Amino acid sequence: MAKTVIIGTNHAGLAAANAILDNSDQEVVMIERNENFSYLSCGTALWVGKQIDGVDGLFYTNREDFEAKGAKVRTQTTVESIDFDGKVVHAITQQGDKVEESYDKLVLATGSIPISPKVPGRELENITFMKKYEEGQNIDQMFENENVKNIAVIGAGYIGVEMAEAAKRRNKNVLLFDALDRCLPNYYDTWFTDDMDKNLADHGIELHYGELVKEYKGSDKVEQIVTEKGEYDVDLVINAIGFLPNNQLAKDHLELFANGAYLVDRHQQTSDPDVYAVGDCATVYSNALQGTTYIALASNALRTGIVAGENIAGNPVESPGVQGSNGISIFGHHMVSTGYSVESAAKFNLDVKYTDIEDTQKPEFMKENDSIKLRIVYETGSRRIVGAQMSSTTSDISMAIHMFSLAIERQVTIDELGMLDLFFLPHFNQPYNYINKAALAAE
Ligand SMILES: Cc1cc2nc3c(=O)[nH]c(=O)nc-3n(C[C@H](O)[C@H](O)[C@H](O)COP(=O)(O)OP(=O)(O)OC[C@H]3O[C@@H](n4cnc5c(N)ncnc54)[C@H](O)[C@@H]3O)c2cc1C
Ligand SMILES: NC(=O)c1ccc[n+]([C@@H]2O[C@H](COP(=O)([O-])OP(=O)(O)OC[C@H]3O[C@@H](n4cnc5c(N)ncnc54)[C@H](O)[C@@H]3O)[C@@H](O)[C@H]2O)c1
After folding, report:
1. Average pLDDT, stretch 214-226?
2. ipTM reported for the complex, 2 dp
3. Which positions fall inside the Pyridine nucleotide-disulphide oxidoreductase dimerisation domain (predicted)?
């Protein structure tokens, strides 16, 4: 019987395991360093910001679910090295016992590692990342402590903005830093981030943009952070300046992308045909870019896991690629985006134009009505849609961004979108939907 070993059993590894176990009778061995399975870090800010009742719902499966399907599950076991010629994985248990597993196919699902700012004082206590469940527990306890008053969040990307909101909801003084001059610069244009920055400031979050941390000061615990512009008293620092792929185990054996991610094809196969890579440790194919890139998202982890699992199970499945669709909701202000913003398109050398609309979602006579901002980004020559960004106080916009994701995948042009049949009912829409209106107004 063919045997597959999966290293890392968070979202990507679990999806791969399910796909193999559900579609074949292969032997599957799952190896995971942590004790827990399937921690949805996406819900951390909701948990530590006390918007949900506790952490329990953030785990969606457990080892028993996989053992019931016939998998051998090794938790609290760390893979130390892989013999790619002999096809053997070498691991060590928390008790120090050496473990070996041979394989026919190997799935690398080792995820990502938060980037560590290389500044003096980084070894001080009360400086943390926010990725693992244990880090969430630690932050939750720190928020509970009344002596912990001043929180510095470094990086105003997705994690940073969500953690800043969570800390504010726990009545802390929050200082949010970013190297660039605004929040969420990787996902949205200024037209959107200006509103989010106002929202953050209106809720009492101190914004320190374009301000790099140079040093952490303190005796045992961090007490101050020093930037180019000043010195601030802090009791807790949360570092959130991005992820790097965790390529430790195979970086000397496999072909890598520019940032070190395992380079995979549309079947999630690496440069070694018996080794697949999925989730945050691997590249993705971007339909907007029409090329390979790196986008660390749970949604990508799940889909890439399924693709690898199906292929290993014997069903040749090709990934349709991704758009990097994402969303954020802070103090009731929702923003969603897919593909590239105008700014990020420029970084990837895509020549684009855009069309904007600011409108109410429903006809003016409707009582409950939210205003919506939409920007559609399209390629100058081909006119295919390569991105969209939306913001509103209604979560309905999340459904609209899914349509833009499909439009990018299917290479729909801005002109085709103008005449797209979008229904009208006052409860939902205006007679001319804002999407049609924006597309028809395109240059
Ligand atoms: C706070 C936070 C909020 C987020 N919110 C969202 C969101 O709202 N939406 C979204 O799409 N994405 C979100 N993300 C990103 C998302 O969590 C990641 O993209 C996703 O976790 C990637 O899944 P993965 O399985 O590839 O990797 P990981 O989750 O990194 O899991 C990798 C696993 O491999 C194990 N492992 C690594 N090395 C070894 C080894 N040598 N031996 C054994 N085991 C090993 C690790 O212990 C880990 O369990 C968020 C991330 C964070 C931190
Ligand atoms: N809602 C969601 O979909 C969601 C939520 C959380 C995390 N995630 C994903 O998890 C991954 C990691 O999130 P993240 O927030 O760490 O990364 P990010 O890329 O979203 O943001 C990192 C931020 O740090 C800033 N930065 C970089 N170096 C800096 C420095 N030295 N000093 C100050 N600022 C610096 C960048 O300008 C950027 O704004 C991303 O792929 C993200 O998309 C997604």
Report:
1. 97
2. 0.98
3. 335-429
CA atoms of 81 and 166, how far apart (whole Å): 38
Same domain, 170 and 197: yes
Q: Residue 51 is encoded by which pair of tokens?
A: 């918007």
Domain coverage including residue 199: 116-241
- 136 Cα to the center of ligand 2, angstroms: 17
Active-site annotation holds for 208: no
The whole-angstrom separation of Cα 323 and Cα 317 is: 18
Q: Is the pLDDT of residue 37 over 90?
A: no
Residue 42 main-chain phi, psi, to 5 deg: -55, -25
Q: Phi and psi at residue 57, in whole multiples of 5°? A: -70, -5
Q: Which of 10, 159, 216 is the best mutation target for the ligand 2 pocket, counting ligand atoms within 8 Å of the beta carbon and taking the most?
A: 159
Distance CA 362, CA 425 (A): 8
Q: 226 and 290 in one domain?
A: no
Predicted TM-score of the model (pTM): 0.96
Determine whether 281 is an active site residue.
no
| Cβ pair 398, 321 in contact under 8 A | no
Backbone angles phi, psi at 231, to 5 degrees: -130, 130
Nearest 10 degrees: CA dihedral of 55, 203, 162, 46?
20
Residues in the chain: 443
Final residue before a domain boundary, out of 207, 241, 275:
241
The domain that holds 353 is classified in CATH as: 3.30.390.30
Closest ligand relative to 279 C-alpha: 1
Nearest to 113 by CA among 301, 248, 289, 264: 248
Domain count, the chain: 3
Residue at token pair 């009778």 = 25
- In tens, the pLDDT along 269-324 reads 999 999 999 999 999 999 999 999 999 999 999 999 999 999 999 999 999 999 99
The CATH number for 28's domain is 3.50.50.60
Residue with tokens 């010195």: 231
Among residues 189, 219, 241, the one where a domain terminates is: 241
